[in-house]
Amino acid sequence: MKARGRRWTPGELKLLKRHVRLLLADRSLSAFEVAGECACELRRARGPGAPARTRHAAYGRICDELRAAGRGRTACRDRWTMAERALLERYARDTVSGRYRSTRKAAVDCWEEIRKLEPGRDRFVDRSRVGVYGRLSARVFELGGSSARAAWSPAEERVLVCFARRVVAGRYVTCRSALPELCSELARYGRRVGPGRRRPGPPRTARAVLLRLQQAVRGLDPGRPTLSERRWSQAETGILDRFARRVGNGRYPDIAAASPDCTRALDRYRQRAKRRVVRTEAAVRRALAARANAIGLVLRGRAWTREEDQVVDRYARAVASGRIPSAVAAAERCAADINRRRERHPERYPDRVRRTVDAVHGRLWPRVAQWRYPWRHTRWTEAERRVVERYARAALAHEHPSLLAAARACHAELAEVVRPAGGKAVPVRPVHAVRDMLVKCTRRHDWRQLPYRRWDPAEHRVGRRWTRRYILHRQGKLVANLVTLAGMLKADLDRHGYYRGLQACKMYLITAWSGSRQVIPRPGRPA
Predict the structure, then answer these.
(1) Any idea what the Cα angle at residue 100 is, between residues 98 and 104, rounded to 5°?
(2) What is the three-class DSSP state of 212?
(3) N or C: which end of the chain has fewer CB within 10 A?
(4) How far is CA 91 from CA 94, 104, 183, 201, 317, in A?
């Protein structure tokens, strides 16, 4: 066996082989971890004047012993177990068969399954998502699949051009309507990978096929409507608003029932206005739902009850605290929980409307943003967190003139907290980091109460209304004074849910009047 550097003594080799036997017996250990323990024991057992063995030297010698025993150089904990390989094989075959639209989506599910395996026997280490994706991609390619960005074969190009001509001729209204048949037709053709060899067609995603089809259609029909022409015009938006109000008034039970009539109305407008864009019923349904939400209509039978909001709040707090990894994962469980409650208690929900995952996610995500815990994935200590939380509550209670003043006071106290009387000094957080953390902590509460923050558009709308009255007062057409108008502006902002002090309202009126003096002169002065 080849020696590296200084020759190993018989005592060192005896100690090294004992660790190698331990590594071969226990598959839950890694060679590098055992090398560290071996180096420590060699350092304690070395004689006077003998140089110490480093961890890397012990690791190299252990790898040589493993290679001589029939084991590879790779550590035991890095090798994939039989259970992990079985999961990779199953998900690779599902990807090639078309069950998953892409390898990336299959890798996410495979990674979740691997994390559920029993540690120590079926799983030695925590696999990363990137590692699972690389291993799964290699296996998918071995089984005959490839990525969606693979080169298109001549047979696939011929099929694509054929469907593009059908879209231009009018057999399909849009490229998206031709997509299902095109994907099923492409799956029948293989991709040539060498002379005389052919593999099954790659699992191309629907988005990749749609983009390629749109490029082919634009090449065959340069006069096709552009993106600006495909946008909804003002007249079309008016038609959508009219049908959305009808759904809200109860003339239609839901959006799906109103979309055919709305589509026919849009077709009549298109023929009258000589527009080239054809609106499909699916596109009209999506736009109709968006317009109903934009104008603030609560669709009949779809209002969220108090019990449903309580369930959504519970899952939002679980996502904010880290018990559920993401809002998307929580939306599926929350939708199933709500629909289960509707089935068990039909007397509480007479509308019989099932909540979809997308609808629950749209209701869940704003609450997650409101309740998200600001200390997640941070390295602030518990003592620092308590100080910052206390100053955040003080800033919301207006005990400090501004948020920067609160951050400076918090920074001064943190210097005393993290620097003990004796021992090694701990570095103090900078002022800007303390201020950013104060902002995160106050967002969980009513952030609109923070002092010295910028005025929102809603506040500006209220302020402009009272600025006009102040301008009339300056012109002598209104009997009032600055303090009275500032107090009325403050009361109006309080009704809208915004807090501003009396001095801030006075400065807003004065600043707004100073900016408008050039167009509205005072009485007795020429314009």
Answers:
(1) 130
(2) helix
(3) C
(4) 5, 11, 21, 18, 33
